[in-house]
Amino acid sequence: MRIIRASDCRTTAWKNGGGSTTEIAVGPSGASLDHFDWRVSMARVASDGPFSEFAGIDRTLAVVTGGGLLLSIGDAAPITLDQDSDPISFAGDMPTSARLAAGAITDLNVMTRRGRFAHRLFRVREPHHCEFGDSDMALAVACSGTLELTFLKDSVTLTAGDAAVLSCAGDAAILIAPKPPADCYVVLLRECRSQAG
User: Fold this and answer.
1) 77 in helix, strand or coil?
2) Alpha carbon distance 65, 82 (integer Å)
3) Coil, helix or strand for 113?
């Protein structure tokens, strides 16, 4: 298990002035936006506008604070996304734009490079044993409040903006327990391996 504290994460302002992004974790470590296999970040969106396009990237987005947004993906009808909505997945190379419903929001964003990694993002509001299934690793992200991670006889507390990287080999018995009304999300990451034959 590797703990990532919010205070250690780097925040970068957008060139268009419409918000900022805080990178939580990326693989390989230190990879740039052009070369990552997977990336987990939070963004503060302060104005309406188009999303950056990422060729060959699959994305999933969840609103974690604020009044929500109206998301337009390609030619599909706009989708309303707020704190109670399930995360939404879409192709990073699909033209996408957002309109804020009631002021700035913060979202959690997961991106994986198609053909190298796949991901799943889901919310945890009750105690949950981390089950990896066919995934190789997981990240537990405390979006608000306090989150307790318990493994064997040890425990660690995460607060808003902190995260933990969990490996399938050693951390399968970890209990993820948000303290209500805390909000937590879990990201499952699976490496895409070529099939023989």
Assistant:
1) coil
2) 8
3) strand
Q: What is the DSSP letter of 128?
A: E
Say which residues have a Cβ less than 8 Å from residue 136's Cβ, sequence separation at least 6.
167, 168, 189, 190, 191
Of 32-36, 71-75, 110-114, 149-153, which range is least confident?
149-153
Q: Rounded distance, CA 174 to CA 149, Å? A: 7
Q: Distance (Å, rounded) from C-alpha 100 to C-alpha 70?
A: 6
The pLDDT-based confidence of 75 (bands split at 50, 70, 90) is very high
Closest CA to 94 of 73, 118, 71: 73
Predicted TM-score (pTM) of the model is 0.92
- Structure token pair of residue 9: 């994460």
Tell the residue number behind the tokens 């990422």, with chain if given: 54
Segment 89-145, tens digit of pLDDT: 999 999 999 999 999 999 999 999 999 999 999 999 999 888 888 889 999 999 999
Whole-angstrom distance, CA of residue 113 vs CA of residue 32: 13
Cα–Cα distance measured from residue 152 to residue 35, given in angstroms and rounded to the nearest whole number: 36
Residue 148 is inside which H or E element, if any?
strand 137-151
β-partners of residue 60 are 89, 110
CB atoms within 10 A of CB 90: 17
